[in-house]
Amino acid sequence: MKVTTINSSRSRKVFAGSRLRRLRLGRQLSQAALAGRLGISPSYLSQLEADVRPLPMPLRLRVAAILGVPASHFADAEDERMASSLREVTGDPLFAQAPVSAEEANAAVRASPAVADRFLTLYKAYLALAEQHQALQHPSGGVARPLSAAQAEAQGFRSAPSFAYDEVGDWVQSRVNYFDRLDRAAERLAEAAPLGGAASLREDLARLLRDRHGISIVEDSGLLSSGTVWRLQRSSKTLLLAEEASAESRLFWIAHVIGSIEQRQEIQREIRKATFSGPEARALARVALANYFAGALIMPYGRFLAEARALRYDIERLQNRFGTSFEQVCHRLSTLQRPEAAGIPFFLVKTDIAGNVLKRSSATRFKFSRFGGPCPLWNVYRAFIQPGHLIVQVASTPDQVSYLNIARTVGRRGGAYLSRPRNVAIVIGCELSYAVQTVYATGLDLLDPSIADPIGPGCRACERIDCRHRAVPQAGSNLDTGTGERGVVPYRMRN
Hints:
Elements: H1 17-26, H2 31-38, H3 42-49, H4 57-67, H5 77-90, H6 102-111, H7 113-137, H8 149-154, H9 164-174, H10 180-192, H11 201-213, E1 216-220, E2 230-233, E3 238-242, H12 247-262, H13 264-273, H14 279-298, H15 301-310, H16 315-322, H17 326-333, E4 337-338, E5 341-342, E6 346-352, E7 357-362, H18 379-382, E8 391-396, E9 402-409, E10 424-431, E11 453-454, E12 478-480, E13 492-494
Parallel strand pairs: 1-3, 8-11
Antiparallel strand pairs: 2-3, 4-5, 6-7, 6-10, 8-9, 9-10, 12-13
């Protein structure tokens, strides 16, 4: 079955001059040297770097192989997300103007992505300072009292706040959620150990941890009540695991500890290459990379990709095949971007019922709202109405790209009657052109545009002017409240 979608990534011209130039300079290659290795003329390479000519797919693959990056590094996805964020930010009333146009935002990102990124960082700092200032002026919701400089400093009011969590998330996104050296190291370990199937994997990893590092595993019934799921006691060489946790979680934590020990140097190497603002971001990055290794160890790349294709990306069957959780499989599916053997490019979002995004990554053009609330039409929020059930959705975004989205709640049990279990949901999605490779397209008429739900990045950033689910106007839009008629919302937005 052949599916065509508007603006298919396979037919779009990709201008990647700035990224190509940065990579070349980072590898300390002259234009002549790189052109020679690519088998093209230096003048052609110069035109590519100046965005005079697009980077065609065959050449993109050769460049990626020579410079050691995935081919998706040169796709428009990251630039489009940054341009969307620029439009969203410039609609803030702070600027007292309408948002910049899509053409202006795209041109700004293409001309100087580093400047655009710094502008977004500055805006995030402005928002955080505004929130800190409000909290300091109204510490308990009472009357505002001015603070002295010393009081402000004592209460943590800083002129340059850090955003470690967002910073690490953006860094992982910039790598398209794929870390080649860690992934291959995990695969080599899985093959050399050797690790058995789902039935014996936990015992195999426990034995590996004991034999190679002298660390034994003890299940503790008191950890979870104190808000801890695992603890490594280095003095006694004991790994304590929360007894109430699921078998899949305990398996993952063992793999995480193995990764943090055995891949310490590689993790540090990756972190040194990044430009994090402080120790908190670096510490979070270490956790993220150890988690990445854990997923790659439990679900080795080659075997997992082969099984995913054979099972048509059926998440629940992959769970059974590898003895993992729904979330772990979804996350692994979103990392299959090895240059010579890529899987379907998925985006992934983990959110709670209040709309707080806990995790996000994307190998697609899907755009996340950085500064506004979520879209209520997205199936990830419908999943909370039917906990534990799989919700499949075809959705289209304002840029006329359609996606197949799969969502389900993945709440952790509380462990006791009086506990408050964490209730979160996962959504994983791919562009519609890849949907036929998945089991989730079964029974869907993917050629019928009417089945697609019109989702957006959140009301503050969404360009749809006729959506009856809108909660607030688009940032920077002109409003017409009128007097002769009333729509589903008490205003109309004018371009």
